[in-house]
Specification:
By secondary structure, the chain is an alpha/beta fold. Helices cover 37% and strands 17% of the residues.
Length: 446
């Protein structure tokens, strides 16, 4: 039987939630953001319940992590079975079956020709760090290209690639040397003030015509690190040619094309990896978030000819933990059995509903996305495209009050990234709540 949601029974936050929040604020780091006062008690599918008994529709999935929904019974069973056998046996030094089986499964599912190898980590940031080291070790080249608006993590190497918000980098320098950032294919806010397709996708060509003409020899670039669909930067889907041109330049100059699929991968866009929408073959793929349905697991999958480092060069005590491996194997099975296809269907349904709203709400400037990775960029004026920063924040907060969990990204984009188990009724409910919130924010009457 379907769980009814949303169902808000108390003022938010409720009494018990306020107690938890007070303790959290007293004893935890001030660096945590805490988007709104939601204190989870349990979850099932795309529905979560807080400690005061209020139920919400979850359209942020722990920031795109709970791919199979909250506590999918098959994933729970897989983890329980493994917990009864053993919790840990460091895979850097010893062997266990699920570690090898998951590596085999990922090499089969990752769209790259030839033999592949896998390195497991605990998180996306660790996987990015691994990929940076792999690139440096294999190519012996000093430079890495990353993109403005990108988010690759907050550890020092990953942060050197990240260029999403200044506050994420402020007062942490010096960063990894040799990292250069260039504009992403953000057509709605083209950094060159050009218009697609007349622009010829100049943003992709600028690496060769501007950067390599003035700053570096392309034969000194080890890798291009790129999110096929930019996540924290605003859920930005670039033109198909953007990746094609960058990949062609990389191949011409022996540069590794490293795709960060931490947020966009694992079936979210309606394909296993978002790069599959763009018709290019990566050399290295970084995965995490939805890979193990909420258990901490990241992975770097590379063509075997590039994973040339010697034993002991890199390792991890907990990476590829057996509980996480079993959860991941079940997650990947569920993706292949229908959740990836469901993401494509439900994403099309949700984006269709939101596009209809754009006729009613001038606050909506741009709607973009693939599958269940959808961004709605809010603007104060469609002509000037002035970002509606406060309004985006207000929309997220108002949606929470109505029982819908969503988040913002970029400067003024509201993102929708629900669990891939979400159904049509839940999609329609979320769209109705979003429309009601927009009416409240803009002062329109329903």
């Amino acid at each position: 039987m379907a769980i009814e949601a949303p169902d808000i029974r108390t003022a938010l936050p409720g009494k018990i939630a306020r107690q938890v929040i007070a303790k959290d604020r007293r004893y935890t780091s001030s660096s945590y953001i805490k988007e709104y006062p939601f204190v989870i008690a349990r979850g099932k599918g795309a529905v979560v319940e807080d400690v005061d008994g209020n139920r919400f529709l979850d359209f942020m999935a722990g920031i795109a992590v709970n791919a199979t929904g909250h506590s999918h019974p098959r994933v729970v069973r897989a983890v329980k079975r493994q917990a009864e056998r053993f919790f840990h046996m460091c895979a850097s030094d010893f062997y266990y079956e699920s570690f090898a089986r998951l590596a085999e499964r990922l090499t089969r599912m990752t769209p790259m020709e030839g033999e592949k190898s896998v390195f497991f980590t605990n998180s996306g940031a660790e996987a990015v760090e691994t990929a940076i080291k792999l690139v440096r070790y294999h190519t012996k080249r000093p430079y890495i290209i990353a993109f403005l608006g990108s988010f690759h993590g907050r550890t020092m190497g990953a942060l050197s690639l990240t260029a999403s918000k200044a506050k994420q980098r402020s007062f942490f320098s010096s960063f990894l040397p040799g990292v250069h950032h260039i504009p992403y294919g953000y057509c709605y806010r083209c950094p060159y003030n050009l218009t697609y397709p007349k622009c010829g996708v100049h943003c992709a060509e600028a690496l060769e015509t501007v950067v390599c003409r003035n700053l570096m020899n392309p034969r000194e670039i080890g890798a291009i690190f790129i999110e096929p669909v930019q996540g924290e930067g605003g859920y930005i889907v670039p033109p198909r040619e953007f990746h094609a041109k960058l990949k062609a330049f990389a191949e011409k100059n022996g540069i590794l094309y490293v795709v960060d699929e931490v947020q966009a991968g694992m079936g979210r866009t309606g394909k296993f990896l978002s790069v599959e929408h763009f018709g290019v073959e990566p050399d290295v793929v970084i995965m995490a978030k939805g890979l193990a349905s909420g258990l901490p697991l990241g992975a770097v999958v590379a063509k075997k000819k590039y994973m040339t480092w010697k034993a002991g060069t890199h390792g991890s005590t907990f990476g590829g933990n057996p509980l996480a491996c079993e959860a991941s194997l079940e997650t990947l099975a569920l993706l292949e059995e229908g959740l990836t296809a469901n993401a494509a269907r439900m994403g099309k349904r949700l984006i269709g509903r939101i596009r209809k709203m754009a006729k009613e709400f001038p606050l909506i400037g741009d709607i973009r996305g693939l599958g269940l990775m959808i961004g709605v960029e809010l603007v104060r004026d469609r002509e000037t495209r002035e970002p509606a920063v406060k309004e985006a924040h207000d929309v997220v907060q108002a949606a929470f009050e109505r029982g819908l969990l969503i988040l913002s990204c970029g400067e003024s984009t509201v993102r929708f990234c629900p669990p891939l188990v979400v159904n049509a009724r839940e999609v329609d409910t979320a769209a109705e709540i979003f429309g009601a919130v927009l009416r409240d924010i803009t002062g329109r009457k329903g």
